[in-house]
């Protein structure tokens, strides 16, 4: 959606705060949910998360029990620049997903390449049991 007035600032870019109650400012942190693909292969699950413009050192992967949380931040350099129109902005990304018991969380591997975070988790081996019928 294009705005008719490019030069007007939004409440976020003008650094205003939302009000909750009578006189209490609320500091909210906004996150964008990144685009994600999940591929199930024979021996592993591959999750691809799109993080355009994010540097590798600004990506954090946190695992607690079966919950995986990915947070990232894109910071745009504006030193010495004056913009007439700007659509690129600083952005915070956050994605959370739960991993089922069929995956081995000890084998998790993450790689960041060209703005895409690849997370690989191996499947647990399925134990096969033969039961003799009497």
Q: What is the helix fraction of residues, given as a range?
A: under 10%
- Structural class by sheet pairing and helices: mainly beta
Q: Count the helices. How many?
A: 0
Overall pLDDT score: 81
State the strand order across the main sheet: 3-4-9-8
Number of strands: 9
How far the N terminus sits from the C terminus, by CA atoms, comes to 70 Å
- The coarse overall form would be elongated
Tell me the fraction of residues in β-strands, as a range: 35-45%
Q: Runs with pLDDT <50, length 5+?
A: 1-20
Q: What's the Cα radius of gyration?
A: 22 Å
Order of helices and strands: EEEEEEEEE
Largest sheet: 4 strands, antiparallel
In short:
The chain is mainly β and 134 residues long. It has no helices and 9 strands.
Secondary structure layout plus pairing:
Layout: E1 18-19, E2 25-26, E3 36-40, E4 44-50, E5 59-64, E6 67-74, E7 91-98, E8 109-113, E9 116-122
Antiparallel strand pairs: 1-2, 3-4, 4-9, 5-6, 6-7, 8-9
């Amino acid at each position: 959606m294009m705005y008719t007035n490019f030069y007007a600032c939004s409440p976020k870019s003008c650094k205003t705060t939302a009000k909750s109650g009578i006189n209490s400012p609320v500091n909210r942190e906004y996150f964008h949910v990144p685009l994600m693909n999940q591929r199930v292969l024979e021996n592993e699950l591959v999750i691809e998360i799109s993080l355009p413009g994010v540097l590798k050192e600004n990506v954090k992967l946190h695992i607690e029990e079966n919950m995986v949380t990915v947070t990232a931040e894109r910071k745009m350099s504006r030193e010495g620049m004056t913009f007439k129109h700007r659509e690129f902005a600083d952005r915070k990304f956050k994605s959370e997903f739960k991993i089922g018991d069929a995956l081995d969380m000890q084998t998790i591997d993450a790689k960041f390449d060209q703005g895409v975070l690849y997370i690989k988790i191996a499947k647990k081996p399925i134990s096969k049991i033969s039961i003799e019928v009497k």
